Automatic annotation (TrEMBL):
Name of the protein in its database record: Transcriptional regulator GcvA
Gene Ontology biological-process entries: DNA-templated transcription
Domain of life of the organism encoding this protein: Bacteria
Organism: Mesorhizobium jarvisii
Keyword Transcription regulation applies: yes
Length: 303
């Protein structure tokens, strides 16, 4: 029995208009005219006999049936895009585009990439660290390492590891006029902050320390710069275990206190469904899991 389908070429216009709630912005995204988007959506409405948008003078909004339809159409287009990626092994078999944060790239991934390249000389890794959640289709990303609570939809997401958070500092701060011996000694030192879910207020509360302003000190948007500041003795950083592991191992940083808090977020390897059929993605996935199992400092993998 033949499928009952809408005009398939019109679906991207409907999807874009539903996401933006604007025919003009949908037209910009798809490099079409406003009229072309409007005609495409009207074509779907006429074919299906339903109204997808309530059109105002200066705005549009989805009807109830249009909103429900947009969710399913979006999922279907994502699945088609993922299937297209998986079915196109020559999307550049030599180049692997990886999306991750600048902190994870600079402090954990890049120092280990030479081992991946040594084992996979035919694959060139290119890192995207813009901080924006990358799109596998429009951004040309093959695989992403994401830090969050999971629940990613429309893709395959594999758990990598949990993470702990604890104070770190230069070994120099363990000496001098006010050596770091107890958490209370933090009152004599500058606190270093980065954009992270667990902050100093939480850690100080768990440590039972009062009388220290958890907001004072220096703040960085970049985790990389925050770690560098701690390495150079600028203060004490609430460090994330993955991002400070190399500096701890090399002795550039130390842990003055034992108290560590488990982050609510974890690391996940995310890629389009079926993408492991591509040799380059399978190779990177297997290498990454081996690296995590070998030396993920201060973290635990789930069985």
């Amino acid at each position: 029995m033949p499928r009952r389908l809408p005009p398939l070429t019109a679906l991207p216009a409907f999807d874009a208009a539903a996401r933006h709630l604007s025919f003009s912005r949908a037209a910009e995204e798809l490099n079409l005219t406003h009229g072309a988007v409007s005609r495409a959506i009207r074509n779907i409405e006429d074919r299906l006999g339903i109204q997808l948008f309530d059109r105002g003078t200066r705005s549009v909004r989805l009807t109830a049936v249009g909103a429900a339809y947009a969710v399913e159409v979006g999922k279907a287009l994502d699945q088609i895009a993922a299937a297209t990626i998986a079915a196109t092994p020559d999307r550049s078999t030599r180049i692997l585009n990886v999306s991750t944060s600048d902190g994870f790239a600079g402090r954990w991934l890049v120092p280990r990439l030479h081992r991946f390249h040594r084992a996979n000389a035919d694959i060139d890794v290119r890192l995207a660290t813009s901080g924006v959640l990358a799109d596998f289709v429009s951004d040309g990303i093959d695989v992403a390492i994401r830090y969050g609570k999971g629940g990613y939809t429309g893709v395959t997401a594999e758990f990598l590891a949990d993470e702990e958070v604890f104070p770190v500092c230069s070994p120099e701060l363990l000496q001098g006029e006010h050596p770091l011996r107890r958490p209370e000694d933090l009152r004599h030192h500058k606190l270093i902050h980065d954009a992270f879910r667990i902050d100093w207020a939480t850690w100080l509360q768990q440590a039972g320390v009062d009388g220290i302003d958890p907001k004072r000190g220096v703040r960085f948007d970049s985790a990389t710069f925050a770690v560098e500041a701690a390495v150079h003795g600028e203060g004490v950083l609430l460090g994330r275990s993955a991002l400070v592991s190399a500096d701890l191992a090399a002795g550039r940083l130390v842990r003055p206190f034992d108290l560590a808090l488990k982050s609510a977020a974890s690391y996940y390897l995310v890629y389009p469904d079926g993408a492991l059929r591509q040799k380059k993605i399978k190779a990177f996935r297997d290498w990454l899991f081996a690296e995590v199992a070998a030396d993920w400092v201060g973290m635990s993998r789930r069985d």
